[in-house]
């Protein structure tokens, strides 16, 4: 089942969007359409979210729809940079949730954010290899071995930026060598537009290894293995969320953000491997 989902992700070239009664997976939000009423006549809230949030946000959508009768949550899951670009192009959206602070800052600078964003979750990176692990990768350092086929997200995607930051950190640590990042990048055979596509290529055996979030491995544990990245070179990815300025569904948008930040929301995030952020502890300390 997980592998089937990953094949679908690999086949898609854009964001994964959800519509209808719950959170389906085809197409994207269309610029210029209203966000307050769904095609079925009910209310809806449109959420643009980083790809790594797919599993917990889909679960939270079910909770939200049960407590808001007649309301549909529609998602557009994609790389954070891609979501910002769609926002700038006028795509209708009520809530944005990204995997880094940089893209949220771009949204703020563009005048798209109605309120101060809050950090609701944190994440870390890990190496992921196919279940068979034919390349025999046993450690993070093995990514630099000649002939290892590595797949990363593009550097303008948060997880791609984080991965390169981790490689540079390792290059400054004893045991890896000052050219560690250079050697790993020389092994990169593909750069993907979001973290789910990195995971899919590894799960399908099209690469020997990739760097993804620990939460992604949890979602695909039947098809891949995880190899820890040491904490002294790892990063902390912080996830901010905000209501979009000009939303046509401000009450629903605020209610969805409230759910994500609630005790119930934090429990769902934790179940899916995220480190939830307690109220009052949403500062940027330690964020990469």
TrEMBL record:
Binding-site residues, molybdate: 52, 80, 195, 213
SUPFAM superfamilies in alphabetical order: Periplasmic binding protein-like II
MF terms in GO: metal ion binding; molybdate ion binding; tungstate binding
DNA damage found in the keyword field: no
Pfam families xrefs: SBP_bac_11
Instruction: List every stretch annotated Disordered.
Output: 20-40
What are the alphabetically sorted keywords of the record?
Metal-binding, Molybdenum, Signal
- Known InterPro entries for this protein? ModA, ModA/WtpA
Tell me one GO biological process term: molybdate ion transport
Superkingdom to which the source organism belongs: Bacteria
| Compositionally biased residues, Gly residues | 20-31
Record-stated family: Belongs to the bacterial solute-binding protein ModA family.
Quaternary structure annotation from Swiss-Prot or TrEMBL = The complex is composed of two ATP-binding proteins (ModC), two transmembrane proteins (ModB) and a solute-binding protein (ModA).
Q: Which PANTHER family does the entry mention? A: MOLYBDATE-BINDING PERIPLASMIC PROTEIN, SULFATE-BINDING PROTEIN
Q: What is this protein called?
A: Molybdate ABC transporter substrate-binding protein
Which organism was this protein described from? Thermomicrobium roseum
């Amino acid at each position: 089942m997980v592998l089937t989902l990953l094949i679908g992700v690999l086949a898609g070239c854009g964001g994964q969007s959800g519509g209808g009664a719950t959170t389906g997976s085809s197409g994207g939000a269309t610029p210029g359409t209203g966000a307050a009423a769904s095609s079925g006549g009910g209310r809806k809230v449109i959420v643009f979210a980083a790809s790594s949030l797919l599993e917990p946000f889909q679960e939270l959508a079910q909770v939200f729809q049960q407590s808001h009768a007649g309301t549909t949550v529609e998602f557009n899951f994609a790389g954070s940079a891609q979501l910002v670009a769609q926002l700038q192009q006028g795509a209708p959206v009520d809530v944005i949730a990204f995997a880094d602070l940089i893209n949220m800052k771009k949204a703020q600078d563009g005048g798209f954010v109605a309120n101060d964003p809050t950090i609701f979750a944190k994440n870390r990176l890990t190496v992921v290899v196919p279940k068979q692990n034919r390349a025999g990768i046993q450690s993070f350092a093995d990514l630099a071995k000649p002939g290892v086929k590595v797949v990363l997200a593009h550097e303008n995607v948060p997880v791609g930026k984080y991965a390169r930051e981790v490689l540079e950190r390792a290059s400054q640590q004893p045991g890896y060598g000052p050219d560690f990042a250079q050697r790993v990048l020389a092994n990169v055979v593909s750069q993907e537009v979001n973290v789910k596509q990195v995971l899919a290529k590894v799960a399908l055996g099209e690469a020997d290894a990739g760097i993804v979030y620990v939460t992604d491995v949890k979602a695909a544990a039947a098809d891949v293995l995880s190899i820890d990245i040491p904490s002294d070179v790892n990063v902390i990815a912080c996830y901010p969320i905000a209501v979009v300025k000009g939303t046509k569904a401000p009450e629903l948008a605020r209610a969805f953000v409230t759910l994500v930040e609630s005790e119930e929301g934090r429990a769902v995030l934790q179940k899916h491997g995220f480190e939830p952020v307690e109220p009052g502890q949403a500062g940027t300390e330690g964020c990469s």
